[in-house]
Write a structure and sequence with these properties.
The protein has 448 residues and is mainly beta. It has 6 helices and 27 strands. The strands form 6 sheets. A 6-stranded mixed β-sheet has the order 5-6-4-3-14-13. The chain has a 6-stranded mixed β-sheet with strand order 7-8-9-10-12-11. Strands 15, 16, 17, 26 and 27 form a 5-stranded antiparallel β-sheet that branches. Helix 2 runs parallel beside helix 3.
C-alpha cells in the first residue's frame, strides 16, 4: 500500500483520544477489463479469457493500487477475485445480461455501496442497453478512525457511459453524465468526490457530455477537474490529441477518464497521471484488455476548521450533511440540542449560537432538549443501533457536554459506540442518512 500506512495510522492526542492522520496519499486505478464472454466479443485480447482475468487479478495484487474501479467485469469476475488480494471488494451483480459490469476492489472500507442504472441508453452502434449499465456510488474511508472519533471520507463513483458516436449515442451519453451530476448534487454535498471509469468520451471529437462535470465548463455542475487535463495539459482541454493505441504511446487521449474535486472536510490534489498498461501485459507482451488502464496518485489533507466522525447505523435513507453550512459559519457553537425518540431514535437537531437550526429525521417520538451555557460545549455522544423490519437503524443517542450534563432519546441497545470530540474541538452538527427515523449518523466537529 506504499505510503498508506501513514494515511491510516492513528495519532494520539492529549487526553487519550485517537484521531487519524491529518494528511496522506492514496492511489487509484481505472480499468475496463474486457470481461464480455468470448463468444460475444473477444475484444482483440489473445488467450483464454479466464486465464487472462486471473492474470489481471494477480497484477492488481502485485502493484498494490488502493482503490481499483473495474468496468465490463462481467463473466470472469470470479477469476479476477480468485487472484486479487485486496481486503475489500464489491459483490458482482452478475454476467451478461444481468450485471452492470461495475465492481471495485480496495484497500479501504466504505459505507453505502449503490448501483444506479442509466435512465437512457442507445443500441445504435453498441449494445449499451443489453445490460444495466450505469454507475456505482460508495463513500470510501481514505483514513479510518480506530475509535470512531475522526475519519476522512471521499465519495467514489465508477462509471461506464454509453458508447458510440451516432446521432443517438451523443444525447444518451449526455443524459448519463447529467444523471451522475444530479446524483452528486443530491448525495455528495459537502464531500470530496473522485469519479473514474469508461466515460466513452474524447475531447478531440468535441464530445460535450463530460464537460458538464468540469468546473471551468459548467457553473451549475459538480465542479470537477480532469486529471489528464490538469497534469498533462496545464488545465487547458486539448482538442487535437489522437486516440490512444493499446498500449498507449506518446501524448494521446483515452475514452477512460478520472475526475475529482475537494470538499470542506478534505483537500485532494492529483500528483501523478499515467497509462499503466505496461503493468498489464501477458508474458509474450500481449495486452490483457483493449483499454489502457489509468493510474493516478492523490495527496490529501484534512481541514483544520471542520472534521467528522465515523458513521454508525445502517445504509438506508437519504443522505444529508450539515458540513456545507458549518464550513462557512464563523466559529459555530451548539446552543441547544434537540432530539426525538421513543422505541427508536426519530430525529436529531442542534441550534447554533447564531440561530441556525440543523435538524434531521422524522416527527415521531417524544422531544427532549438541552440549552447549553455560553462556555459549555457538546463534547461526547453515544449511539446505539438495532434492527427494525430487516434494516439497521439508530435506536438511541446520548449527548454529554463539557459541564458533565447529558441529554438522551430513544431506546438503548447492546450495540453501541462512543464518539468523543478531539481535544479542543466540539460537536456542532451531523451527516448521515435519514427518513422518518435516523438510519445512519456521523458527528461534525469544529474548534471551540
Amino acid at each position: 500500500m506504499k505510503l498508506n500506512a501513514i494515511v491510516s495510522a492513528a495519532l494520539l492526542l492529549d487526553g487519550g483520544v485517537a484521531a487519524t492522520a491529518a494528511a496522506g496519499k492514496f492511489s487509484i486505478l481505472s480499468m475496463n477489463v474486457a470481461g464480455l464472454p468470448a463468444w460475444l466479443n473477444n475484444n482483440g485480447v489473445p488467450g483464454d479469457k479466464a486465464e487472462v482475468a486471473a492474470l489481471i487479478g494477480t497484477k492488481f495484487a502485485e502493484h498494490g493500487y488502493d482503490v481499483i474501479h473495474l468496468q465490463e467485469d462481467f463473466n470472469y469476475n470470479d477469476h479476477i477475485y480468485r487472484t486479487d488480494t485486496h481486503p475489500y471488494r464489491t459483490a458482482t451483480s452478475g454476467g451478461i445480461p444481468i450485471g452492470s459490469g461495475l465492481n471495485t476492489v480496495s484497500n479501504f472500507n466504505w459505507v453505502d455501496f449503490r448501483r444506479i442504472k442509466w435512465k437512457r441508453c442507445s443500441d445504435i452502434t453498441a449494445a449499451d442497453c443489453m445490460t444495466p449499465k450505469g454507475f456505482t456510488f460508495m463513500r470510501v474511508a481514505i483514513s479510518a478512525a480506530v475509535d470512531n472519533t475522526t475519519a476522512v471520507y471521499a465519495d467514489f463513483y465508477n462509471i461506464h457511459a454509453d458508447a458510440g458516436t451516432s446521432a443517438l449515442d451523443y444525447p444518451a451519453r449526455q443524459s448519463n453524465v447529467n444523471q451522475v451530476a444530479e446524483y452528486i448534487a443530491a448525495n455528495s454535498q459537502g464531500n470530496a468526490v473522485v469519479i473514474y471509469g469508461d466515460l466513452n468520451s474524447l475531447y478531440s471529437r468535441k464530445d460535450t457530455a463530460v464537460r458538464a462535470l468540469l468546473s471551468g465548463e459548467s457553473a451549475a455542475g459538480p465542479g470537477m477537474k480532469d486529471v489528464w487535463v490538469e497534469l498533462k495539459h496545464g488545465g487547458v482541454i486539448p482538442s487535437d490529441k489522437p486516440e490512444c493505441d493499446v498500449p498507449a504511446v506518446g501524448d494521446c487521449e483515452t475514452l477512460d477518464k478520472v475526475y475529482y474535486r475537494s470538499g470542506p472536510l478534505v483537500t485532494l490534489q492529483a500528483t501523478t497521471f499515467r497509462y499503466d498498461t505496461p503493468n498489464f501485459l501477458q508474458a509474450d507482451g500481449s495486452v490483457l484488455s483493449d483499454h489502457n488502464s489509468i493510474y493516478v496518485d492523490f495527496t490529501w489533507s484534512a481541514s483544520s476548521s471542520v472534521q467528522q466522525s465515523d458513521f454508525f447505523g445502517g445504509d438506508h435513507g437519504a443522505w444529508f450533511s450539515d458540513i456545507p453550512a458549518l464550513a462557512v459559519s464563523s466559529k459555530p457553537k451548539a446552543a441547544t440540542l434537540t432530539f426525538r425518540g421513543g422505541s427508536r431514535l426519530d430525529s436529531v437537531g442542534v441550534t447554533l449560537a447564531d440561530g441556525t437550526v440543523l435538524r434531521h429525521g422524522g416527527s415521531g417520538g417524544a422531544e427532549v432538549s438541552l440549552a447549553l451555557g455560553a462556555s459549555e460545549y457538546w463534547t461526547e455522544a453515544q449511539l446505539c443501533k438495532g434492527e427494525k423490519l430487516g434494516k439497521i437503524r439508530n435506536f438511541y443517542i446520548r449527548a454529554a457536554t463539557s459541564e458533565g450534563r447529558t441529554l438522551a432519546a430513544g431506546t438503548a441497545t447492546t450495540d453501541c459506540a462512543t464518539f468523543v470530540a478531539p481535544d479542543g474541538w466540539q460537536i456542532v452538527g451531523f451527516a448521515g442518512q435519514d427518513g422518518s427515523e435516523m438510519d445512519q449518523l456521523a458527528f461534525v466537529y469544529a474548534p471551540r
